[in-house]
Prior knowledge:
Layout: E1 9-13, H1 17-26, E2 35-40, H2 57-64, H3 68-74, E3 78-80, E4 82-86, E5 94-98, H4 111-120, H5 132-139, E6 159-161, H6 164-177, E7 181-184, E8 187-192, E9 199-204, E10 208-211, E11 214-217, H7 224-229, E12 234-236, E13 245-251, E14 262-267, E15 270-276, E16 281-287, H8 294-303, E17 314-317, E18 321-323, E19 327-328, E20 331-333, E21 339-340, H9 348-361, H10 370-396, H11 404-411, H12 416-428, H13 441-450, H14 467-486, H15 491-498
Parallel strand pairs: 1-2, 1-11, 2-7, 4-14, 11-20
Antiparallel strand pairs: 3-6, 4-5, 8-9, 9-10, 12-18, 13-16, 13-17, 14-15, 15-16, 18-21, 19-20
Helix pairs in contact: 1-6, 1-9, 5-14, 9-10
The protein binds flavin-adenine dinucleotide.
Flavin-adenine dinucleotide (FAD) binds near residues 15 and 318.
Amino acid sequence: xxxxxxxxxxxxxxxxxxxxxxxxxxxxxxxxxxxxxxxxxxxxxxxxxxxxxxxxxxxxxxxxxxxxxxxxxxxxxxxxxxxxxxxxxxxxxxxxxxxxxxxxxxxxxxxxxxxxxxxxxxxxxxxxxxxxxxxxxxxxxxxxxxxxxxxxxxxxxxxxxxxxxxxxxxxxxxxxxxxxxxxxxxxxxxxxxxxxxxxxxxxxxxxxxxxxxxxxxxxxxxxxxxxxxxxxxxxxxxxxxxxxxxxxxxxxxxxxxxxxxxxxxxxxxxxxxxxxxxxxxxxxxxxxxxxxxxxxxxxxxxxxxxxxxxxxxxxxxxxxxxxxxxxxxxxxxxxxxxxxxxxxxxxxxxxxxxxxxxxxxxxxxxxxxxxxxxxxxxxxxxxxxxxxxxxxxxxxxxxxxxxxxxxxxxxxxxxxxxxxxxxxxxxxxxxxxxxxxxxxxxxxxxxxxxxxxxxxxxxxxxxxxxxxxxxxxxxxxxxxxxxxxxxxxxxxxxxxxxxxxxxxxxxxxxx
Length: 511
Ligand code: FAD
């Protein structure tokens, strides 16, 4: 057996959210003698969007030992309890995908089976009333959760909405304080080793060169190393996820209220996001360019803002899909360089997080055994496909009558993995989670029911429990959640008390 040859130098190329998340996490290796360098160019802008997240981000920040209130304050952050979907199922309809569980299981049977039965009998209200996050979200309230499972507040699960550039800056300070070296410079060439095609060095403007053993490509959609130098293929999912452009614009918050959730409103050729931060609101219209012109899409976005726009909108082009190998030779792609699924369920930053965690768990040595690389790629593919399926569900299960996009996505063939899930659920509300699937049963149930995929029946074990007792339990859960939510402070008051952000000078800018 040959002696291990630990990696001694890691070069991260790109300093957007992906680059600095990787740098912050990998800074732990500096103590073991590994040099970690991040190269970025001030002359090349980051994507500048990416404001909503999902609950596991708290684990990432927690592992880094980040103080939550300090982080929220410095990133103009707010709390996200879920997503409000307006007009997605059909025009005039509204539902919530809340974080956190629905109700409580009874005698080992999932709560939603009891709910389905009572709902069919007209003895239960809509399922959201049995979820604490959804209840608090509707009232615009939030309080710090309690870990003790005996407290109802242990049912509160949350994520963040923040300014992505401030998050990158926050992580930069963290990483640099722990020995990560930042190098300013524009990459003009990537040099490959002739013997094995690995990246040997990157060349920077001004005749500088940075060598490394492991390279992390965080250069965004450009994918300078993974795509440009290694020519790694891309698997397009455009036939399922047809939106390929977005206009993004920040606006002023028109009032004092800061809603603790992201809002997604379906429109004729796509959908519009609204993400409230402390100092402003992030907005964007994600659309399919076959169905609407750029000008009309921009006009639609600007006509549907709650407050005054703070600058001109920015156009972003993209294609849904994944890099066929997220790890190729000695390059691991993270963030947009590794693929993209539109931000409907705020999953991209999470995919960076899981990418970094997997890399830490499978850190190669200088021999770059294919075993670790293949496992990384296998897991990445599964995770991206699971996210893809979840997002497709929102489109496919629609009853909208406007716009050709909605008819096409309703009628299209969907991945077999998703079809199986829908069929199982539609039959008797059954749901299974595979391979550490990111979204829990409660998320799938929220969106399936929200998109009107109603199970025809329920688990027959739900019939074994006294119906009067079940009804009593459901009424009680709803009541306890309502009272708990009503007792919480308003979200904006909680922010002001715990993590007020510096007041920003939000002046109107035109490009
Ligand atoms: P970028 O931010 O593009 O950073 C690329 C970096 O590479 C920059 O630092 C740049 O300077 C550097 N670079 C590039 N070329 C060179 C070069 N030649 N030399 C030196 N440096 C170079 N995700 C979420 O989780 N939630 C959301 O709500 C969300 N909303 C989104 C909305 C839209 C419309 C889009 C397109 C994406 C959204 N995302 C969201 C995804 C999110 O924006 C990205 O996952 C995240 O910002 C990571 O981007 P990145 O770091 O990979 O790339």
